[in-house]
Automatic annotation (TrEMBL):
Membrane topology note: Multi-pass membrane protein
Protein name per its UniProtKB record: D19L3 mannosyltransferase
Location of the region described as Disordered in the Swiss-Prot/TrEMBL record: 1-24
Transmembrane annotation, as ranges: 41-66, 179-197, 217-235, 242-258, 264-281, 312-329, 341-362, 416-442, 522-540
Keywords assigned by UniProt, alphabetized: Glycosyltransferase, Membrane, Transferase, Transmembrane, Transmembrane helix
Annotated compartments: Membrane
GO molecular function: mannosyltransferase activity
Cellular component annotations (GO), alphabetically ordered: nuclear inner membrane
Sequence ranges of Basic residues compositional bias: 1-10
Family: Belongs to the dpy-19 family.
CDD domains given in the database record: Dpy19L3
Keyword Transmembrane: yes
Organism: Brachypteracias leptosomus
Length: 716
């Protein structure tokens, strides 16, 4: 049974204000007035201390990651080309648009260059603002141009300091969310400390600065905090409206800054759907949250020039289906246990069918295929048939898209985070199951009353939401390592809330017949303090050692390549190569690319597969014809790909190409029976022998220990 109770004086400002409103119609005597004044002063003091702690820890985290970044690369001392090379893979691509906007003669010309871009994909003009989530780079570049800071701060520092500043916002949001759940800022303090001491598993901002998730996750944390506050009871209408506005703004900014927004919010919508089905959240608030998700995503769709991938997202189809199904089944939450279970099963099936029908209809109307690679990847990942699809295998073979490594849990356990998390998760899950059963059976109804002392099992709506949120995102993290940062940061919030919450300790102490309010209060504050002391004692020396460790950026081969390209090729030259390297070529040299790492486009995926034939077993004539069809002037071959050893057999890039082309893979091991030997040797190996069949089409113009650059002949 969900029970909502008023908190006692001294826990929060809201508590004090509620008590004040209750006492307005009672004539207080001198003692009551004195007690109330003292309680209000204590509440204000507590909020002040907690607020200062949140801001301080946020700023310390920002300085911490900025210092690690500087110490790791000696960023302030290296050359500009080295700074840009340090933005690896897609990070370099995103930063290149910020640089492009900064270097444009005017803001209008910069925007025009993004809307009508013909340098990111050769022989093709694309709209960068429609294809990629780079509005943050646009906004930041405009801000840099109009602020009087050019003489004091280089553009690259303005960019990275903004991202490090967002880390402060992120930590503050986590701190406040935990505080809201538990009613004490001690919980927020513990959440922030866990986030910092588990940095390896909670963030990677210090070495992947421009990555979209580093922009988006702070806004996602704000949104979760706002939803947590929204699900409180006894909110005034003005408080609800303001909170809904915060939720909308945070949802919009989260959606605007990350291309995977729709999938993250779909999981969030599933959490709301599950809780609403079991009558654990107020239906009206859940409806508002569905509408906010749709409206926020649609606003982003408009800003991205009606991006079809957004219109065809499962989130929009799912939320619309839930609202339609709810309108059809108006008596869903009435009746006995079996009656409600039957209605619930029908409701779930109806929502599922409507979601698939609406989504299929939208995709057919829009002829949408931009996200098909994701579903192919998911199908293969969860064992629904093997695949030779190049794009799906490219994801499957990357460690970031594999299962969460077991050593993650050992690191999280070192700080006690994982142990506490499992403890709190178990207790809260048991409570949630009991509450859900009671709600479905109708034995107890949701009660909005202030006298709940006789109830043994309670679960507040805000705690219920955070429980399902952490479970679903935990499943996502376990299945896909790259998504662990969505889970581990919230793990800090959830574990610290449970450790500092009366709702956790009270039923536990009652089960062993040891409950008294004073004992629960002592445990609620003493165990978090002991945990904080343990973390400080064990990890403070390590953090200090980490901050004193100095390294330096060193990649002379890539620096040499970029300098050669800038000095020896025309500005209009078109380069082909690996996605990761070409992002750096665009950033450092401004040359035109054939392909790039932003993979959410079917034509680009097909183009990339064709370009990658330079690492397959193809004839020089075939490779030359393919490259010239994309306007290629130069092709860059990398020994690290041609002779790759990082992946095992079957996951090397050349193996993926061989399987997709129907060829037997290199090396010892089994091959599928229908694969056949290729008629040609591997192109990237054979071209180095300077045979006439190759030199007719390709001339080597640059070489070092890592890279080989060939110029394509321009035959009539």
């Amino acid at each position: 049974m969900i029970t909502i109770r008023q908190r006692k004086v001294g826990k929060s400002t809201d508590t004090a204000e509620d008590q004040l409103s209750e006492e307005k119609n009672v004539k207080p005597d001198e003692k009551i007035l004195s007690d109330h004044t003292g309680g209000r002063l204590w509440s204000i003091l507590s909020v002040t201390i907690g607020g200062i702690g949140a801001i301080s820890l946020g700023l310390l985290t920002s300085v911490y990651v900025a210092t690690l970044h500087e110490n790791d690369l000696w960023f302030s001392n290296i050359k500009e080309v080295e700074r840009e090379i340090s933005f690896r893979t897609e990070c370099g691509l995103y930063y290149s648009y910020y640089k492009q906007m900064i270097q444009a003669a005017t803001i209008q010309q910069g925007l025009h260059g993004l809307v009508y871009d013909n340098k990111t994909e050769s022989v093709r003009t694309i709209n960068i603002l429609e294809r990629m989530n780079v509005y943050q780079e646009v906004f930041l570049s405009i801000l840099y141009r109009i602020l009087p800071i050019q003489q004091y701060l280089e553009p690259v520092y303005f960019y990275i300091y903004t991202l490090f500043g967002l880390q402060a916002v992120y930590v503050i949001a986590l701190y406040v969310t935990s505080w809201l759940l538990s009613g004490t800022w001690l919980s927020g303090l513990l959440a922030a400390c866990w986030y910092i001491t588990n940095r390896i598993d909670t963030t990677r901002v210090e070495f992947t600065i421009p990555l979209r998730e580093n922009w988006a996750l702070p806004f996602f944390a704000i949104q979760i905090g706002a939803i947590t506050y929204l699900l409180r009871t006894h909110l005034q209408p003005i408080q609800e409206r303001l909170t809904l506005m915060v939720v909308f703004i945070a949802t919009f900014l989260f959606s605007l800054t990350w291309q995977f927004n729709q999938f993250m919010m779909l999981i969030q919508a599933l959490a709301l759907f599950i809780l609403d089905c079991f009558d654990m959240l107020p239906t009206a608030k859940v409806t508002w949250l569905y509408i906010i998700q749709i409206s926020g995503l649609m606003l982003v769709c408009v800003l991205q020039f009606f991006n079809s991938m957004i219109l065809g997202s499962l989130l929009i189809s799912f939320n619309a289906s839930v609202l339609i199904a709810r309108a059809i089944q108006k008596n869903l939450k009435k009746g006995g246990l079996l009656n409600r279970l039957g209605k619930l099963i029908l409701h779930v099936l109806l929502v599922l069918c409507l979601t698939l029908l609406i989504n299929k209809f939208i995709k057919r109307i829009l002829n949408l295929e931009s996200d098909e690679h994701i579903f192919k990847f998911l199908k293969a990942k969860f064992g629904f048939g093997a695949t030779r699809d190049f794009d799906a295998n490219l994801y499957l073979c990357e460690e970031a898209f594999g299962l969460l490594p077991l050593n993650t849990f050992s690191r999280l356990s070192d700080t006690l985070l994982f142990y506490v998390y499992v403890f709190v998760l178990f207790l809260m899950t048991v409570a949630a199951v009991i509450v859900a059963f009671q709600n479905l059976s109708g034995s107890n109804q949701v009660q909005f009353t202030e006298k709940m002392e006789e109830c043994t099992i309670t679960l507040k709506p805000d705690a219920a939401y955070n429980l399902i949120h952490t479970v679903l995102f935990g499943c996502l993290a376990l299945s896909t390592m790259r998504m662990k940062y969505l889970w581990t940061s919230h793990m800090c919030v959830f574990a610290s809330f449970g450790l500092c919450s009366t709702e956790v300790w009270k039923p536990l102490l009652k089960c062993v017949h040891l409950y008294t309010s004073q004992r629960a209060r002592v445990i609620k504050y003493s165990i978090p303090v002991i945990t904080l002391l343990y973390i400080s004692y064990k990890f403070w020396p390590g953090i200090m050692d980490e901050l004193s460790e100095l390294r330096e950026f060193y990649d002379p081969d890539t620096v040499e390549l970029m300098n050669w390209i800038k000095s020896n090729t025309p500005n209009t030259a078109v380069f082909a190569g690996s996605m990761q390297l070409l992002a750096g070529v665009k950033l450092c040299t401004g040359r035109t690319l054939t392909n790039h790492p932003h993979y959410e486009d079917k034509n680009l995926r097909e183009r990339t597969k064709q370009i990658y034939q330079i690492y397959a077993k193809r004839s020089p004539e075939d490779v030359y014809r393919i490259l010239r069809s994309f306007g290629t002037d130069y092709v860059i071959l990398e020994d690290s790909i041609c002779y790759e050893r990082r992946h095992s057999r079957g996951c090397r890039l050349r193996d993926l190409l061989d399987m997709a082309n129907g060829h037997i893979m290199d090396g010892l091991g089994d091959n599928e029976p229908d694969l056949k030997p290729s008629l040609y040797p591997r192109f990237c190996e054979e071209i180095k022998k300077t045979l006439p069949s190759y030199t007719t089409h390709f001339t080597r113009v640059f070489q070092n220990k890592t890279f080989h650059v060939y110029k394509l002949a321009k035959h009539k």
